[in-house]
Amino acid sequence: MEHITLLIGIVIVTALVFDFTNGFHDTANAMATTISTGALAPRTAVAMSAALNLLGAFLSVEVAKTISSGIIDEGSGVHPEVIFAGLVGAIIWNLLTWLAGLPSSSSHALMGGLIGATIAAVGTGAVNGDVVVMKVLIPALAAPLVAGIASLCATRLTYRLARNADEGRTAKGYRAGQITSAALVSLAHGTNDAQKTMGVITLALVTGGALAPGSDPPVWVIGAAGLAIALGTYLGGWRIIRTMGKGITDIRPPQGFAAQTSAAATILASSHIGFSLSTTHVCSGAVMGSGLGRKGSVVRWSTAGRMVVGWALTLPAAGAVAAGAALLAEQGDWGVTAVAVLTAAVCAAIWLRSRREPVDHTNVNDVEPAEAPVPGPAPEPEPAGVVTTAIRAVSPPPPPAGVAAAAEATAPGSTPHTTSRPASAGSLS
Questions:
Q1: What does the pLDDT read at residue 120?
Q2: Can you tell me the distance from the alpha carbon of 78 to that of 84, in angstroms, rounded to the nearest whole number?
């Protein structure tokens, strides 16, 4: 194993903490629609996603190379303290957006943190601007559009091909396809997002003199990053799962299948060519595309607008926090210690705040955040009626076939039961 100093060890541990937050922050990307449609139980879904994230971490290192030797100039005087500060900015932004239930990009938080810390400590010359534009900013703009258009087309094609089929009978097939596509997204997430932490650790080893410039991530780095993101995924970012699964649009099994298949194809293609893509942007775009692709579906643009604002703020916000941390960390050992203590205090405060209104696998589908009263979730008997009323006020009622299929699922051949279980109630169970 490479010679590792105490400071590099601190950077590695901090990088793995970021990888852990990346895991629970991005669980929604793969499993939100699967959980919201009932295709898989919440705990089963996150367990499957965690295992596939771990497997995906071993499939490629192209994105890791982009992080370790592309965005930041290794020979520009960047020290491990700078990387430590960049990770601090990314971790704090991840936790803040998780607390708000906002599906922001962990990838861009990491990029913003590294760029902000590097500029504060070394200057703009240490940042490879052309790489940032070509492999970060352009994919950030293109990815949600590509995934959204693909999902829209796939959703319309799916409904068109099955227009004469019985919806109740095809639902099981779509759910099976949704599970398969969710597995692909989880695998793709491991190949893309786990590599970002590999790249950061490799960069720290290079700047600390433990690895030669241009080296691939060592096997132990790949394994550690894969385990960290898998553990975070298993714990589940239930707040963001609620937003992705319920807050953007009402997802039905055909839409979930189309959205996740489109997202998986986009992410896997980007990983192959080394684009450091935001899986959050891709999956959110795919969910919105699926909402536009189904007739009678409603996309909640207020929620989508808040997400876009969060995306726009991620790079500069994480960069600003990281820049402040870098200036303090550059003061010496006491500065690094101060940054570590302050970061731990902020993380603890965010965690304690989240306990006031806990969201977990038992209530992740209970309330749609875009429609829920503030503060706190409504009592369990009320959300279905509140949400159903709000949706009916802005959209036409669900197609009769969907209502009939829902009734048939609960009591085959019995029409009177359609009034006891509205179509939207199924998505809140």
A1: 92
A2: 11
Assess contact for 364 and 241: CB atoms under 8 A.
yes
What is the secondary structure of 285-344 as a DSSP string? HHHHHHHHHSTT----HHHHHHHHHHHHHHHHHHHHHHHHHHHHHTT-HHHHHHHHHHHH
CA distance 287 to 297: 12
371 pLDDT more than 70:
no
Picking from 17, 26, 20, the residue whose alpha carbon sits closest to that of residue 88 is 17
**Contact yes or no for 116/71 (Cβ under 8 A):** no
**In sequence order, what E strands does 68-202 have?**
none
The whole-angstrom distance between residue 241's C-alpha and the CA centroid of its chain comes to 9
Q: Give the model's pLDDT for residue 348.
A: 94
Q: What is the pTM of this model?
A: 0.74
As a residue count, the chain comes to: 429
CA 404, CA 422: separation in Å to the nearest integer?
Answer: 10
The rounded distance, in Å, linking the Cα atoms of 96 and 25 is 10
Q: What is the distance between the alpha carbons of residues 118 and 127, in angstroms, rounded to a whole number?
A: 7
Binned at pLDDT 50, 70 and 90, residue 73 comes out as confident
* Contact call for residues 378 and 372 (beta carbons, < 8 A): yes
Q: For residue 72, list its beta bridge partners.
A: 127
Q: What is the three-class DSSP state of 241?
A: helix
Whether the Cβ atoms of residue 258 and residue 290 lie closer than 8 Å to each other: yes
Which range, of 65-74, 195-204, 230-239, 369-378, averages the lowest pLDDT?
A: 369-378
**pLDDT per residue as tens digits for the range 295-309:** 777 778 887 888 888
